[in-house]
Amino acid sequence: MIFMAEMDEHKRAVLVICDGLSDRGKLTPLSAAETPNMDYLARNGICGLMDAISPGVVPGSDTAHLAILGGDPYNDYPGRGPFEALGGGIELEEGDIAFRANFATVDRDWTILDRRARRSGSRELAEALGMEIDGVRFIVKHTTEHRCALVMRGRGLSSAISDVDPHGPGRVLESKPLDESEEARRTADLLNKFVKRSYEILSEYQTPANILLTRGAGMFRRVPSLKERYGFRSFCVAGSALYKGVAKFLGMDVIEVEGATGSVDTDLGAKADALLSRIEGYDLGFVHVKAADSRGHDGDWEGKKVFIERIDEELIGKLIGLDGYIILTADHSTPVSIRRHSSDPVPVLIHGEGVRVDRVERFDEVSCGEGGLGRIRGVDLMPIIADYIGYYRMYGV
Amino acid sequence: MIFMAEMDEHKRAVLVICDGLSDRGKLTPLSAAETPNMDYLARNGICGLMDAISPGVVPGSDTAHLAILGGDPYNDYPGRGPFEALGGGIELEEGDIAFRANFATVDRDWTILDRRARRSGSRELAEALGMEIDGVRFIVKHTTEHRCALVMRGRGLSSAISDVDPHGPGRVLESKPLDESEEARRTADLLNKFVKRSYEILSEYQTPANILLTRGAGMFRRVPSLKERYGFRSFCVAGSALYKGVAKFLGMDVIEVEGATGSVDTDLGAKADALLSRIEGYDLGFVHVKAADSRGHDGDWEGKKVFIERIDEELIGKLIGLDGYIILTADHSTPVSIRRHSSDPVPVLIHGEGVRVDRVERFDEVSCGEGGLGRIRGVDLMPIIADYIGYYRMYGV
C-alpha cells in the first residue's frame, strides 16, 4: 500500500496575460512567430482555449481581465471609470462616481479642436481642477499624457449619466441622466457645472489643454478581494492604468516597474525581473503585456508577430526557470484583419508540477484547441490556478 | 510589413440545420455517408460539437431551434402551440393561447377511432370551427393533412391547462387546469366547451374528421427579434410549420418555397435556390431540412444515410459557392438505434473568411469533436455568427 506524502504546502504561480495576442485566419501572427519558450511550455504543459466571457461575446479588456483575474464579469463590473481611477492611484470610497477623463482643446463654442490636447496634460493642471460643488468633491488625477481620472465624491450620486466626451469630432456634449432618478439628474447637472468650471480654469493656463472631457462613468462598490475569495496573496505588474485598476479592484498589490509602459517600447525584461524578484512574498504574480493588442488594432500583422517573438524571448524565456506554475494566455483576440477585439477564443496554457501533459506541441490558436483543457471560460481560470497552488476550495464533502 | 485591409463591412451567412442529423455508435449514417461537399467545408473551416441546450439534456426540435436561432431556450420558450400557430400563418397577439390541434375520428363515447382522421382535414372544416364563447375568440387554421393550429384570444386566459388529445388510444380527455388560478380554470372550461362544439359542428360534415383535439398549450408573448438582439436581417426557408414558427417568433422573415415539404420528397435544390436568390436582401438565411430526423425516428439507418448524401449533393453542393459564411449543424441527434431524440451533441462547422481552419478533415460526429470550436452550446452559435458577419456586440470597453 502506498501512502502519498502529505502535500498541503502552497506553490507559486505567475499569470501572463498578453493583451489581444490571438487572431483569426489560417496563418496568425502567433502561429507564424518563432516562440521556442512558449512552445516548450506547451509541450510540457496542458493547453486549451478560453472565452474570457462566453463564446461569441466580444470582450472589452476591462471585463475580460475582471473575469480572468477571478471576478464576476457581470455582477462585479463597475464600468470603466473606477478601474482607471484605481489604476491611476486614487483611493476610491464606496459610492464614488469615477470617470476616464482627458484634457482636450476646444474653441469658444466648445467645438473639439483636438480631443487629446496635443497629448498634453500635467499634474499641475489636474490639481487645479480639484473643487467642491454643492457638497460634492471633484478629484482629478493625471495619469499619462492627456489622460486623467476624475472622481465625484458625495452623497446621492448615480453613475447613470452620459458621456461629455463626444468620442470624435463635434461639440462637447452635455451629460444627461440615463434614468429617471433624482440622483442621475443631480449627478449630470453637477458634472456639467464641473466641465464648465474646468474650461474657465484651464483657459487661464497657456497650454493646449483647455477643457476636461469625461466618459465611462461608474460607481465604485467594494467587491471581495482575491485573498477573501481564495486566500492567496497576489500582485500585479502592468504598464497601463486600466490593468492596474482591475488588479487593485480585486485586492491585488500593484508593483510599479520602471520601464513598464504599456507600449511597444515596454521593458519586458524589467517586468520579468520584477515578477521574479517579488514573487517570494506572494502566491500569484500577474503580468500584463499590452502591445500585441495595439498591433492588432493597427492591422499590423508583421509588427504583431515580431512583438510576440519579443514576449517569448524577453519575458517567457526569463520566467521558464520559475519554481511554480506558469499560466500563459490572452484577454481576447484582436485580429489584424478586422482591427478590433473579436470573440475568437484565446489560447491558454498551464505549465507546472502535476498538470496533465497533453499532446499539444505548440502554443497557437489551433494547436491549443486540441489540448487537454478543452474550451473553458475566463471565470474558470482562477479556480483552476487556485487548486494547483493549493488554495483550492471544495464544494461538498 | 503586412497591413491588412480594414474590414468593418458586413458579410452574409447561411445557416443549415439538418434536423436529427447525427447519431450514436461507431458507424453512424453521417460518418458512413459520402459527403464530399460537407467534408470540403470541414477541411477548410472550423468544426466542433454543440449541445443545443446543455450536455445531457434531450432537446425537442422547438427548444433546440429556439436556442440555436438566438433565443433563450428557457426564458423565451412559449410552449409548442405558439410556434405551430405562427408557422401556420396566424398573426398572434400578446396573451393569445395557442395550441397544436388535429382533426380526429371518435365514436359517440368520444373513444378515439383514428387520431388522425385518416389524415384528412381542410380549410373549410377549420373555418367552420371559428367561434366566440364567453368573450373569447377561437381561431382555427388548417396547416397540413389533419393538422391545425388553434388560438384562443381574449382576456384572462392561461396556458396552464392540460391536453385534450390523449396522445394514443382511449377516450378524449377533458382539459384540466394545471394550477390553482382562476384563469387556468376558466381557460380549461372554455376549451372543453369548444371541443364539444367542434364535435357537434364537424359531425354535420360527411368526413372522418368529427372532432378537434388540442395539445401543447402556450401563451404568446413577444420576445426581442434577431434584428433587435443583433441588428441583422434574417429569413427562413423551411417546410414544416414548427420551424417557420420559431423563425417568425424571433422576427425572421419566412420565405415560402414551392416543393419544400419537410418530408423525404422535399426539393432540396429549390431550397438552395431560394436561399441564394433571397440572401441579397438579408444578412442571414436559415434553411431547415427535416427528413434525416424522420429516418432516425423510423430506425432507418440506410434511409438516413441516403438522405444525408442527398443533402450533401443537392443542398450543400449548391451553397458552396456562396460569398459569405456557411454554418452547418443539426438541432439534435436522432439515433436510429433508439428512434428518438438523444442528448448526444451535434456536429457543427463554420466555413468562411478568417475562421481558424483546424485539422478536421471530415464532417462527422467524431471528427468534429476534435475541431477548433470545442464543445459549444446552442445559445453560443448566434453570437459567434454575429461576430463573423460584423454585427458583434462588445461587453465592456
Automatic annotation (TrEMBL), chains A, B:
Pathway: Carbohydrate degradation; glycolysis; pyruvate from D-glyceraldehyde 3-phosphate: step 3/5. Its EC number is 5.4.2.12. Keywords: Glycolysis, Isomerase. It catalyses: (2R)-2-phosphoglycerate = (2R)-3-phosphoglycerate. Coiled coil: none annotated. Residues 11-386 form the Metalloenzyme domain. InterPro entries: Alkaline_phosphatase_core_sf, ApgAM_prokaryotes, Metalloenzyme, Pglycerate_mutase_ApgM, Pglycerate_mutase_ApgM_sf. It comes from the Archaea. GO terms for molecular function: metal ion binding; phosphoglycerate mutase activity. It is an enzyme of class 5 (isomerase). GO terms for biological process: glycolytic process. Belongs to the BPG-independent phosphoglycerate mutase family. A-PGAM subfamily. NCBIfam families: apgM (TIGR00306). Catalyzes the interconversion of 2-phosphoglycerate and 3-phosphoglycerate. This is 2,3-bisphosphoglycerate-independent phosphoglycerate mutase. The lineage of its organism: Archaea, Methanobacteriati, Methanobacteriota, Stenosarchaea group, Methanomicrobia. The gene is apgM.
